[in-house]
Amino acid sequence: MTVTLQEISKELGLSRAAVSHVVNGRAHEVSSQTRERILEALQRHDYQPNALVRSLQQKKTHVISVIVPSISISFYPDMINAIEREAQRMGYQCFLAQSHSIDALQDKIISTMREYRVDGILICPSCSSDQKEMLYRLWQHKTPVVLMDNPVEGLPLPCIRIDDERAGYLATKHLLDLGHRRIVHIRGIEDEAVVNANARLRGYRQALSEAGIEPDDSLVVHGHRLPSTTLPSLEELLDQQVPFTAIFAYNDTYAIEAMRSLRRRGIQMPQEVSLVGCGNLAIGKLLDPTLTSIHQQPQQIGYEAMRQLNQRINDTEFVLASKLMEPELIIRQSTMRRES
């Protein structure tokens, strides 16, 4: 049975205020002898403070919410681990939820977290324009919010992410440096809300233009929302026998699907087609050939997002600011110099 502060104070013959001082970190308000008696009683009764009561008194729960599309994608666990380490150092606990890129589910999660009066929310938004209303309401209610990975245009909310345009540029420039000129880009889903996909496309085009190559829109194909064993858009290019010697995929998942499509048709990698992904997922190091990819700095994103959120929670006047992290090209076996 749960014991109360009143019962402990009665047992010790002390005032409730004296026991409360020790429980709430104000032990210096009582004598050392009294403090030792109270601590012994608290330990003996395995006393657990009422977090709800404390949060009402302090107007803080010391809990934050982290919402990501899925923890099955290794990019997000790396980010979450960094957030948790930083949050614990700052005195917060984390509520973790998965939106599965479903707007209605994300909205429900956000509503639930607001009901629990979390101090702030870190969100990797879904790739849809239908989510703006709920996120805008968070901003209107002055809920401390920091977006991660995917910004939402038209909202005054900061986003911590890699420089996606630079990522697209680095991937394409690497292939150009290897002598490739016909480079397919598998971009994100066909949705203008996917800001990072559009930025990677701009980086791809910039690298081609700098190399004196006119970007060919017929080599830019769309991905899809859910993982599959094939990429229909790439399969169509292959069916039409469109010539190309390299692929830059929007993410590692698309790159792996491209590998499967090429392998089914007996196309060797990287001898016939070089391939670059984006995300640097752990599985990329286990593939054959191992996957060249762009590292998205998930730990740095997590640290910076948590740092800004903490500042906003503790200072309502603190101005949150978007920040771009520098992507890094990780060269492995899936790319090679093109034979003349």
Description:
The chain is of the alpha/beta class and 340 residues long. The chain folds into three domains: 5-49, 434 Repressor (Amino-terminal Domain) (Orthogonal Bundle); 58-162 and 297-326, Rossmann fold; 164-295, Rossmann fold. Helices cover 42% and strands 14% of the residues. Strands 2-1-3-4-5-11 form a six-stranded parallel beta sheet, sandwiched between helices. Helix 8 (164-177) packs parallel to helix 9. The longest helix has 17 residues, at 298-314. It is elongated, with a radius of gyration of 26 Å. The mean pLDDT is 87.
Descriptors for this entry?
alpha/beta; 434 Repressor (Amino-terminal Domain); Rossmann fold; four-stranded parallel β-sheet; 340 residues; six-stranded parallel β-sheet
Produce the secondary structure layout.
Blueprint (H helix, E strand, L loop, with lengths): L4 H8 L3 H8 L8 H13 L6 H8 L4 E6 L6 H16 L2 E6 L4 H13 L4 E4 L8 H9 L4 E4 L10 E4 L1 H14 L5 E5 L7 H16 L9 E3 L9 H8 L6 E4 L2 H13 L9 E3 L16 E3 L2 H17 L8 E3 L2 E3 L10
Parallel strand pairs: 1-2, 1-3, 3-4, 4-5, 5-11, 6-7, 6-8, 8-9
Antiparallel strand pairs: 10-12
Helix pairs in contact: 1-2, 2-3, 5-12, 8-9
The CATH architecture of the largest domain can be named as 3-Layer(aba) Sandwich
Distance between the termini: 80 Å
Task: Compute the number of structural domains.
Answer: 3
Under CATH, the homologous superfamily of the largest domain reads Response regulator
Helix/sheet category: alpha/beta
Largest sheet: 6 strands, parallel
How do the helices and strands follow one another from N- to C-terminus? HHHHEHEHEHEEHEHEHEHEEHEE
Mean pLDDT: 87
Low-confidence stretches: none
CATH class assignment of the largest domain: Alpha Beta
Tell me the helix content. Answer: 40-55%
Cross-sheet strand order for the largest sheet: 2-1-3-4-5-11
Portion in strands: 5-15%
Q: How big is the Rg?
A: 26 Å
Query: Per CATH, what is the topology of the largest domain?
Result: Rossmann fold
Number of strands: 12
